[in-house]
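Action item from last week, closing it out:
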Amino acid sequence: MRFAIWSVVLAVVAVGIALVARQSDGYVVVVAAPYRVELSLNLLVVLVFAGYFAFHLLARLVETLVAIPARVRAYRADRARTRTRQALNDALLAFFQGRYASAEKAAATAMEGDEARTVAAIIAARSAHELGRFTQREAFLEQARGSAPEVDQARLTTLADLLLSQGRHEEALAVLRDLSGRDARNVRLLRMRHVAETQLRQWDEVLSTTTALVKLGGLSESEASVSRRAAHLGNLGRKAQDAGALAAYWKHLPAELRVDSSIAATAARYHLALGGTAEAQSIVESALEAQWDAGLVALYADCAGASALPLIERAEKWLRVHARDPALLLALGKLCMRQDLWGKAQSYIEASLALEPTHEGHMTLAALMERLGKPQEAIRHFRRSAELAG
């Protein structure tokens, strides 16, 4: 439609010009002694317009010729950028496909351009790491250095991740601490830091990092519970040789952790090793009141001090609720043996073995038979315990 309109307009203009020119009788005389040129006005107008258009075309031609080198450079630069982007794309695809040699090669090609040099260098570093080419990895990471903070953070995050995968936890943690100072709410950095601190057994730091991760949603409650348990067990182990430090740490533990069966059992064993039977008894009893656990029940038999009678009374109260618990029956048997209550001890141990024959149960009964002067019975139970142990 537009073409038709312009065609009509141009036709009208042409007709108008033709009519005006037809009625024009003017002429122009150009005198340049000794020459004299006489032209019609219509021809002069045509020559002026023709000269204008000729000059315009010549100027455009010159401009085009002058711009050719710049256009060639722009074309080459555009081709280089296209090649770089394609190489980067190939590097990413190869990396995620596990073709690390191809990824490294493509990333090295992508590094020739400025646009994606940093990203390409990081991909090349990761690929070299997967191939075990650690010297090349360091070289690529060095080339990934950039002035922009986000570029340096990406490089250092990659470095920390690769160091962790090598088991170089101290070096990784040093990098991660520097990064955490810049971005304290980065969940990925905190998770890597949590791994490094756990491997290095830096339990106080593990507790702090776990709390931060839970607040940011980086750890589920179950994961956080496992992490806190491991950290507190580690700290208890460090205080296992100092009764005062062990008691102080236990006092400051959260109430819900003091009744955790694994933590309570560990703390009780450490107190028993230091001769703290009363402390161990209190820990085990509190934990068992909160949650019944066979391992803690078995440990309770070792918590007797000068007299085992208070423990026997407490255990017999538990027996009213847990009458068929073989661990509780065996613990009662051991406590009765400590108190020289031989008949009760034998009854409890035999009841335990009737419910669940165990190596420890037969060993305990064998020891009791020796005390009672029944060597044949003792030998029989020693043999049975050996069979169960095998």
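Closing note: The longest helix spans residues 41-97.
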